[in-house]
Amino acid sequence: xxxxxxxxxxxxxxxxxxxxxxxxxxxxxxxxxxxxxxxxxxxxxxxxxxxxxxxxxxxxxxxxxxxxxxxxxxxxxxxxxxxxxxxxxxxxxxxxxxxxxxxxxxxxxxxxxxxxxxxxxxxxxxxxxxxxxxxxxxxxxxxxxxxxxxxxxxxxxxxxxxxxxxxxxxxxxxxxxxxxxxxxxxxxxxxxxxxxxxxxxxxxxxxxxxxxxxxxxxxxxxxxxxxxxxxxxxxxxxxxxxxxxxxxxxxxxxxxxxxxxxxxxxxxxxxxxxxxxxxxxxxxxxxxxxxxxxxxxxxxxxxxxxxxxxxxxxxxxxxxxxxxxxxxxxxxxxxxxxxxxxxxxxxxxxxxxxxxxxxxxxxxxxxxxxxxxxxxxxxxxxxxxxxxxxxxxxxxxxxxxxxxxxxxxxxxxxxxxxxxxxxxxxxxxxxxxxxxxxxxxxxxxxxxxxxxxxxxxxxxxxxxxxxxxxxxxxxxxxxxxxxxxxxxxxxxxxxxxxxxxxxxxxxxxxxxxxxxxxxxxxxxxxxxxxxxxxxxxxxxxxxxxxxxxxxxxxxxxxxxxxxxxxxxxxxxxxxxxxxxxxxxxxxxxxxxxxxxxxxxxxxxxxxxxxxxxxxxxxxxxxxxxxxxxxxxxxxxxxxxxxxxxxxxxxxxxxxxxxxxxxxxxxxxxxxxxxxxxxxxxxxxxxxxxxxxxxxxxxxxxxxxxxxxxxxxxxxxxxxxxxx
Length: 723
Ligand code: BDP
Hints:
This protein is of the alpha/beta class. It has 4 domains: 15-142, Chitobiase/beta-hexosaminidase domain 2-like (Chitobiase, domain 2); 148-481, Glycosidases (TIM Barrel, Alpha-Beta Barrel); 519-560 and 598-674, Alpha-d-glucuronidase, C-terminal Domain; 687-723, no CATH class. It is built from 20 helices and 18 strands. Strand 10 (284-287), helix 9 and strand 11 form a beta-alpha-beta unit. Beta-D-glucopyranuronic acid binds at residues 167-168, 210-211, 288, 292, 327, 370-371, 398, 534. Keywords: Carbohydrate metabolism, Glycosidase, Hydrolase, Polysaccharide degradation, Secreted, Signal, Xylan degradation. One of its GO terms (biological process) is xylan catabolic process. The active site is at 292 (proton donor), 370 (proton acceptor), 398 (proton acceptor).
């Protein structure tokens, strides 16, 4: 199997699983509501396809006449259509936008959506039950936690430089853009992606990189965009794009992009009207402004709110939304001990609360820095009471092993969702802020940076797809349990074998803690190369870099002092109770100790270990954990199809090796820096390994690497040939 269908394989169930149940699978489907190629149509064809795949049975379309009372039938439609054709549906009023009702009672099934999209979601839910051989009778309504459940793609129109055509994408090139400035002719992957997204109830997608290219707005590309929107529409997925703030100058012929300039306002209004004339359900814009070289309103001394509202006013008459990113940290002097990138979002946005138009949503990365292996929740979530907010999560594993390492992310996301900000001294979990419940906002939700590509596995590895599946599930209900989501995904993706389920579940659940252990524990950040790749160990690059991601490590001590009393004051950006806890090492959990405090390597943690010994132990433990993954997976031979089995085995073996590289590089680096040996006496020693440098080299030379600790023998070899 290639993986192209993800968890929507509709693989046949074995006779032992379906025994006694096939008779209860309805043989007809009655459709109530429009059938004009929209999500309801999709729902019907998906149900027929699914039942055919799982049970080998053909479901016939029932005549509309007897639809309401037909037995042995799946009734599917909107609540409104059901009420018009059949009778009042008392549970209908429990539904919110996109919600649905599902009941299964022997051979009679009802799937009623608040809208067509809801009906499609209900269809996928029903198929998910069947695919897992769950034949129980159920009757319930379910609603989304928030209206915004979007995928973000960081796809480039041009595949320039070393970036490839998807920034931080590890599953091949773009399914949307041809790499030379246009939308692709072959868009055949788009509906397949729409299908995956719809099945986990994602209702919007921004298809272009936040580092945006103005040429997306040219006439040809807008036509292409409209084709893409047509392909996503049957799946209930609305399309949006990222904007380059300077477009009026870059693409138009204006000599300014000042958001308050009349000609600029007109330019954007016209451009937006043009888009809506082609794509009436266009979902809106995503904007990265004044960040990492992107242009923005600050250039003209305007506020970020002025910038956001410019677009908000343009899309407002069409019902569109502007997602404005809070990832702004330019112009800070990192050499100043009190400068802290973690403070930037609150510094830039805190004072703008209340200044954003109602259709602006501030999109906030989960932590205050940048998708690290462990961060506290961004303090901005507690600082905007009069502004709608969405959380930005990353499904593409930029700092987290880039899909070459298995890292199941929901346990990491849980630490953020469950993070209690204690706003006004009351429970206020981040998940309830995002949904709008804490501050009474009607807009809010989730943006997941997915970055699927043309690779048949979508993300580059089969197992990493559980993160996309889980993102959708959590956006619907952020309180859901990481294990049960994973189990559903595993059964749908790999079948119902208990051994497969047990292996994938235990490996996945162990994977994020293991990655944290070997890549950077105690809240020190993922110690990757920070300069560009964000992959592989490079603890030395974590200081004195221009990105403001610092560990402040020296020979005696390590960690960012983010206290109010001595440090950058970041702890003080949280509401009082949380701020007070992070102000003191005594009340800071070990896993965030170096995030908030600068302490000697000999500092004793709550665990009783010193910081340095905890580094050594964690890196050994993490690497040890993932050594087992390859063997656990290998034991599934014959239970997983050959193609996926071998693909993952290769990756898990690689991860086992790379975790050792990580372990040794980090431990050696801090041992050299601190001069304190590992009390367990473990030294870097690989008795069976033959270093490349020790071989007779023909056409290769030995070179020094920086930092030396990242090479197993302090040096590496390179080919003598150029290029
Ligand atoms: C960083 C990425 C960079 C993105 C940026 C962003 O390294 O590629 O452009 O975030 O989110 O994590 O804007």
